[in-house]
Amino acid sequence: MDIDDIIKQVRSYDAGADTDLIRLAYDFAKEAHRTYTRKSGQPYITHPLATAEKLAELKMDDTTIVAGLLHDVHEDTAIPLKEIEKQFGKEVARLVEGVTKLGKLKYRGVERYVESLRKMFIAMADDIRVIIIKFADRIHNLSTLSYLSRDKQLRIARETLEIYAPIANRLGMGEIRDQLEDFAFRYVDPKSYAQVAKIMNSRIKMFGDYLDKIRQKLGKELAKANVKVLDINSRQKHIYSLYKKLNRPDIKGDITKIYDVIALRVIVSSVEQCYAALGIIHQLWKPLKGRIKDYIAQPKTNGYRSIHTTVFSDKGQIIEIQIRDQAMHDEAEYGIAAHWHYAETGKSKNDVKPITKKLRWVQELAKWKKKYKNDPQYLESLKIDVLQNQILIFTPKGDVIELPEGSIPVDFAYIVHTDLGNKCTGAKINNKIRPLETTLRNGDVVEIITDKKRKGPNPDWLPFVKTQVARNRIRKARQV
Ligand code: MN
């Protein structure tokens, strides 16, 4: 893609974009990087150009595209920020400065990781577009990683898996997360990557044609029932996420237990049509019990919305089908970027709120900085409590407690109060008594049963708890 293609694409989603400024930024960057080449031997400008291309794919605004084109100018060619500000304005200069600062943080293992994350959140809290430019920059760098030394490959790939991908996930940017993870995984663990890719390819060989027939049949049936289908396609799981699932204790490497290796995805025109489509699908094929997930009524806490169902299709093959409308699809793929775009172009001004809501955790994290500086537990709590998908749990009084996915009632008790954790003997989940090791689900109402005479927590909980808070409290109580 050259700059003309990018400009064309930006115009297609934002007619009022300042394309002169985009072209000016391109010329400026090309001139500034003139004497530089990439390790691949290509002219340096190919890199900012690829970064801008990715940003246009995310439908980002003209300011972000301009900053994407200029993102390495200050760091690599010593052109002062003042000069960028003079030519392209304060906002662009501020974005370039943010990206440059992030670029200076080098991942060197655990201690530095805390510091990197801290700075990352401060930059994000200031302007979320900084991290979006950084994602685009990183994806192109990963795609040309083969030209670097093994040391550098590993550093960049590990940093991507540990820091960038979880942040993309938390921002609801599923497509970006998947790209980051698959590129990085290939370098961090080439053997496993090759194994899982092989499994995937044999699945595609085995089921590709079959799925195609099912897809056509479903399309016809939905049309017959007047469901307006915008698209039906089959999407395959990304390599890294398949790898993670294969390693889950309930799967133990058994691919036949994973129903969404290749799933059908139906995109319809409205929320009502999602439910209509679900009805048609269940008339056509029998659903598997307990596998209907309505993330429209109850979105995941990173904002993900869709309906998932798993059915016995023709010949008894089990397949997963995902149903969503176009807005849900854009949000699932591009997350915060999609919200931001809708708000910016004024298509849906009401969408400003969810952005602010999504950003609140970023603001919180940026504020923690001083308190937790150089505290290795800060790192653990970030990795475990913040960068994971969260679920919302209700107290009997209706208060909402946010917990990482996979939490158990003990985690819930400790988040509410240390004493509640230390004295708990049982739990009611949705009014039924359940073991304390039960995995909680989004929307559960949890009541903790306590015994005042109880001396302290049970160390047997340790392998089951998910939050660092609970883990620390249990360990501490054991020491006294
Ligand atoms: Mn760069």
List keywords for this structure.
6-stranded mixed β-sheet, alpha+beta, 480 residues, 22 helices, binds manganese (II) ion
Describe this structure in words.
- With 480 residues, the chain is α+β, with helices and mostly antiparallel strands.
- Helix content is 57%, strand content 12%.
- The protein has helices spanning 3-13, 19-32, 46-57, 62-70, 73-77, 81-88, 90-104, 110-126, 129-143, 150-170, 174-188, 190-224, 239-246, 271-284, 326-334, 336-344, 352-367, 369-372, 376-386, 409-416, 418-422, 468-479, and strands spanning 229-236, 262-268, 286-287, 293-294, 307-312, 318-325, 390-394, 400-404, 424-429, 432-434, 446-450.
- Strands 1, 2, 3, 4, 5 and 6 form a 6-stranded mixed β-sheet that branches. It has a 3-stranded antiparallel β-sheet with strand order 10-9-11.
- Strand 7 (390-394) and strand 8 (400-404) form a beta hairpin.
- The longest helix is centred in the middle third of the chain and has 35 residues, at 190-224.
- It is globular, with a radius of gyration of 24 Å.
- The termini are far apart.
- The relative contact order is 0.07.
- Bound molecules: manganese (II) ion.
- Residues 47, 71-72, 137 line the site of manganese (II) ion (MN).
